[in-house]
């Protein structure tokens, strides 16, 4: 596999996964070509097409198109099964997944994909194992959110409050340091002025005695 793209009927890209290194310019060109070719095809057209030296397999689910780019010698039916299995995993997690689920929870969609595919190959065929990994990740996130929550505030707010508290502490320490330095300078000036006054008194006494 070279890439996996998810885009809407309007050509809006919702998810992209690249399994081979490409430049940003090449990625943008592939996205533009895939959306234009797939969206322009008739509803009853074949789900397989050739593009340059790759074979493109796509499948529409509701308002989303799942587009997979593979080598020419790859099995098209196996690529379709990969797309369908990914959709099943998304349905299992979101419950009848829709385009809004991908938009507002794209990090979960990427996480599910990473548990299912690695480096362009299927690393786990069992839906139960993938679902257990996802549930374990959600539980860890919930535990962390609970531990970091302070006074009923969300985790992000608590982290922000902690940073602000540290900044206030540093500012106070700097203030006391500057105040202490100024106090030392003031004391030294007093001693210096007192020494000059004492020296003048001694000189005046010597002059009077003479």
TrEMBL record:
Under SUPFAM superfamilies, the record lists:
SNARE-like
- Describe its assembly: Adaptor protein complex 1 (AP-1) is a heterotetramer composed of two large adaptins (gamma-type subunit AP1G1 and beta-type subunit AP1B1), a medium adaptin (mu-type subunit AP1M1 or AP1M2) and a small adaptin (sigma-type subunit AP1S1 or AP1S2 or AP1S3).
Work out whether the entry's keyword set contains Transferase. Answer: no
Its recorded name reads: AP complex mu/sigma subunit domain-containing protein
Question: Which species is the source of this protein?
Answer: Mola mola (Ocean sunfish)
**Which Pfam family would be a valid example here?**
Clat_adaptor_s
**Matching PANTHER family:** ADAPTOR COMPLEXES SMALL SUBUNIT FAMILY
For this UniProt entry, what is the primary localization, expressed as one broad class? membrane
Per UniProt, what is the membrane topology? Answer: Peripheral membrane protein
Q: Where in the cell is it found?
A: Cytoplasmic vesicle membrane; Golgi apparatus; Membrane, Clathrin-coated pit
Q: Which GO terms describe its biological process?
A: intracellular protein transport
Q: Where is the AP complex mu/sigma subunit domain?
A: 1-138
Q: Which GO terms describe its cellular component?
A: AP-1 adaptor complex; clathrin-coated pit
Protein origin, superkingdom: Eukaryota
Keywords carried by this UniProt record = Coated pit, Cytoplasmic vesicle, Golgi apparatus, Membrane, Protein transport, Transmembrane, Transmembrane helix, Transport
One annotated GO molecular function is:
clathrin adaptor activity
Q: Which residues cross the membrane?
A: 174-192
| Entry similarity comment | Belongs to the adaptor complexes small subunit family.
Entry keyword Protein transport:
yes
The record's annotation in InterPro entries points to: AP1_sigma (IPR044733), AP_complex_ssu (IPR016635), AP_mu_sigma_su (IPR022775), Clathrin_sm-chain_CS (IPR000804), Longin-like_dom_sf (IPR011012)
């Amino acid at each position: 596999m070279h890439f996996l793209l998810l885009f809407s009927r309007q050509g809006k890209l919702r998810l992209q996964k690249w399994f081979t290194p490409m430049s940003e310019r090449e990625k943008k060109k592939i996205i533009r070509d895939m959306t234009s070719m797939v969206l322009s095809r008739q509803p009853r057209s074949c789900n397989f097409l050739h593009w340059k030296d790759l074979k493109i397999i796509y499948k529409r689910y509701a308002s989303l198109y799942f587009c997979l780019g593979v080598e020419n010698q790859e099995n098209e039916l196996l690529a379709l099964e990969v797309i369908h299995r990914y959709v099943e995993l998304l349905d299992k997690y979101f419950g009848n997944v829709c385009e809004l689920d991908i938009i507002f929870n794209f990090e979960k969609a990427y996480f599910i994909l990473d548990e299912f595919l690695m480096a362009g190959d299927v690393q786990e065929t069992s839906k139960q194992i993938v679902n257990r990994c996802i549930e374990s990740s959600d539980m860890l996130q919930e535990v962390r959110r609970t531990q970091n929550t302070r006074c009923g505030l969300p985790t992000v707010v608590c982290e922000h409050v902690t940073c602000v508290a540290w900044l206030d502490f540093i500012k106070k320490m700097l203030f006391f340091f500057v105040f202490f330095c100024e106090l030392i300078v003031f004391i030294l000036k007093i001693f210096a002025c007192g020494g000059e006054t004492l020296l003048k008194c001694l000189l005046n006494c010597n002059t009077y005695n003479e």
